Amino acid sequence: MSKKINLKIITHENEVFNEDVDAVYSKGVDGEFGICPGIFRS
């Protein structure tokens, strides 16, 4: 069984997305980044 992340995207008006996902990828100030369950850096 793979771990999942619950991703919620909420605007000022309503919640537009609420599902469990395998990973999240996005653009940041310093480039693209990903978030995966069970992986972290302290």
Question: Describe it for me?
Answer:
- With 42 residues, the chain is mostly beta strands.
- The protein has one domain (5-35).
- It contains no helices and four strands.
- The strands form two sheets. Strands 1-2 form a two-stranded antiparallel ribbon. A two-stranded antiparallel sheet has the order 3-4.
- The mean pLDDT is 90.
Shape: flat
Write the element-wise H/E pattern from the N-terminal end onward: EEEE
Give the biggest beta sheet. Answer: 2 strands, antiparallel
Gap between N and C termini:
25 Å
How many domains comprise the coordinates? Answer: 1
Counting DSSP E segments of at least 2 residues, the number of strands comes to 4
Computed CA radius of gyration, to the nearest angstrom? 12 Å
> In which order are the strands of the major sheet placed?
1-2
Helix content: under 10%
Which quaternary structure do these chains form? single chain
**Structural class label:** mainly beta
Strand content: over 45%
| Low-pLDDT stretches | none
Arithmetic mean pLDDT: 90
Helix count?
Answer: 0
